[in-house]
Amino acid sequence: MKKNFLISFTAIIAMLFSVIACDDSNAKDNTDISKKDENRKALRIISTTCFTCHSPEREIDNKARTGPPIYKIRPHYMRDGITREEFVADISSFLKEPTEAKAKLKGAIRNFGLMPRMPLPDEDIRIIAEYMFENDMTAEQWGKAGKMAMINGEDQSMDYEELGREYAMGTKAVLGKNLMGAIKSKGAPHAVDFCNTRAYPLTDSMAKEYNVSIKRVSDKPRNRNNAANKDEIAFINVLHERIGKGEELGSKVSEINGKIVGYYPIETNAMCLQCHGTPEKNIEKLTQTKIKEKYPDDKATGYGVNEIRGIWVVEMDKK
Ligand code: HEC
Ligand code: HEC
Question: 19, exposed or middle or buried, with CB in 10 Å at 0-12, 13-18, 19+?
C-alpha cells in the first residue's frame, strides 16, 4: 500500500515535472520566435522608413541627403554602463517627439535640421530601439543584414498593408523634410518651384530605393498628372466621409492587374495651407502668382487643416 502510494506519488511528480518542463521549453521557443519576428519587423521598418535619411551606404540623391547614418548616432546614446532599458527609453523618447532639447547630435541639427516626427506606434518604436541596442548597424552589418534582401526575400511576416504604409511614410518624411527646408531657406513662393521640380524625382528615387511604384494622387489635383482615377476617387470619397464623421481613416489594399496596390490617406496640416489654403487668406500673393503661372488649371486650393488632400498609391509586386 505504502509502496504503491510512493510509486504513484513519484509518477505524479514525474508527470508534473515533465508537463512543467515541457511548458517551459515551449515558452522559451515562443519568446525566441517572437523576438525573431520583432527583429525582422524592426529591421524592415528601419530599412523602409529610417534608412531613407540614415542610410549607412549611399545617398538617395545628393540633394536629399537628409541625416547622419545610424551607426554614427548610436555611440552618442551608448554611454558607459547604460542599461538596455535606459537606452531604449532614451531613443524612444526622441522618436516619439523629436525636440532640439532632447537631441544629442547638435551638429547634425545644424547640418540637416531637426528630425521630423515619424507617426509610428509605440510598440514599433520599442522594437526599433531594442534592435538599435543590440546591433551596431555599420554599413556592413546593416547593409547585409537586411535592406532589400529582406524586404524582397524571406520575410515571413510580410504584411502588404504595413509594408505599403511604411513606404508611404518614408517617402512622405523625405518629401516633407525637403519641403520644410525649401520654405525655411527661401520662403513659400520659391518652395513652389521645389514642389514643381523636385516632388516627382524625390518620390521616384524613393520608389526606386524600395523597388516599388509610388505616387500621390488627388480628387482636386494641382498637377493634372496627379489626378486620381475612378478607383482612387472612390476611396478618397470614403475618406472624406470618414473624416467628416470623425472615424479612423484606415487604408485600402487590393490586387489590381496582378499587383498589390495600397491606398493611404494624405491629410493637410497648417503648413500645407501656405500653398493649398484659401488665396489671400492663407496663400501669399506671390505664391499664388507662381502657382497660377505653373498650374493654370490648379484645383488644389481652399483646404483647411485635417482635410483629405489625396492619397498615396503604393504598387508592390506580389510575393
Ligand atoms: C526625413 C529624414 C529622417 C527620417 C525618415 C528619420 N530620421 Fe532620424 N534624424 C534625421 C535627422 C536630420 C537627424 C539629425 C538631427 C537631429 O538629431 O534631430 C536625425 C537624428 C536621429 C537620431 C538622433 C537624435 C539626437 O540628436 O539625439 C535618432 C536616434 C534617429 N534619428 C532615429 C531615427 C529612426 C529610428 C528613424 C526611423 C523610424 C528615423 N530616425 C527616421 C532625419 C530623419
Ligand atoms: C510651397 C508650396 C506647397 C506647400 C507648402 C505644399 N504643397 Fe502640395 N503641392 C504644391 C505644388 C506646386 C504641387 C504640384 C507638384 C507637381 O507638379 O508635381 C503640389 C502637389 C501636391 C500633391 C499631389 C496632388 C496634386 O494636387 O498635384 C499633394 C497630395 C500635396 N501637394 C499635398 C500637400 C500636403 C499634404 C502639404 C502639407 C503637408 C503640401 N502639399 C504642402 C505646393 C505645395
Answer: exposed
All cell numbers assigned to 280? 489671400
**Ligand nearest to the backbone CA of 203:** 2
- The partner residues of 265 in beta bridges, in order of sequence, read 311
Cβ of 54 closer than 6 Å to ligand 1, yes or no, is yes
Residue 76 CA: nearest ligand 1 atom is: 27
Q: Which ligand has an atom closest to residue 47 CA?
A: 1
**In the chain, what are the domain boundaries?**
32-158, 162-319
> Ligand 2: which atom is nearest the Cα of residue 176?
38
Instruction: Using the atom order of ligand 2, give the atom closest to the CA of residue 218.
Output: 24
Q: What is the pLDDT along the chain (319 residues), one digit of tens a residue?
A: 444 544 454 444 444 444 444 444 444 455 666 777 788 888 888 877 887 788 766 544 444 557 888 888 999 999 889 999 999 999 999 999 999 999 999 988 888 888 988 888 999 999 999 999 988 777 666 655 555 445 444 454 568 888 898 889 888 888 888 888 888 888 999 999 989 988 888 888 888 877 889 999 999 999 999 999 999 999 999 999 999 999 989 999 999 999 999 999 999 999 999 999 999 999 999 999 999 999 999 999 999 999 999 999 999 988 7
32-158 is classed CATH 1.10.760.10: yes
Give the DSSP H or E segment for 260.
strand 259-267
Instruction: Tell me which residue of 92, 157, 97, 102 sits closest to 126, measured CA to CA.
Output: 92
